[in-house]
Amino acid sequence: MDMLAMLEDHWWWLIFAALLGIGEVLLPGVFLIWIAIAAAITGLAALALPIGVPLQFLIFALLCLIAVWGGRRWYAANPVSSEDPLLNDRTARLIGEVVTVVEAIDNGRGRVKVGDGVWSCRGPEAPAGARVRIVGADASVLQVELA
Length: 147
Fold this sequence. Notes:
By secondary structure, this protein is α+β, with helices and mostly antiparallel strands.
């Protein structure tokens, strides 16, 4: 008898759950674990109940939806702390830096040099070459004050 044919349906679900769990460990993204839980519960249901493969897939699909929905709710209520919470907020990371005005700030608008780039800014009148401190941002326009 073929080795693959000897494995019952529930074992396939449990093996799939284990592979997804390993995938979560190797490629952490906090997503595969929810699918692994759905596969494990489907495997346990197939072991305990005499259900056919089409119903197993339906159970798996429903459990995936419930598990992902529950996981998203849980992570929304319990956010993961980060060592660098401003990692993806470039303008917030700039607050407090002192930069140089490259186009004079006239009528509250001008441009400043930040690193190797030039950003639009709003703030008090300042000539080109003046030093200003970044105090905020509105989208990609920096708010500055005299340093």
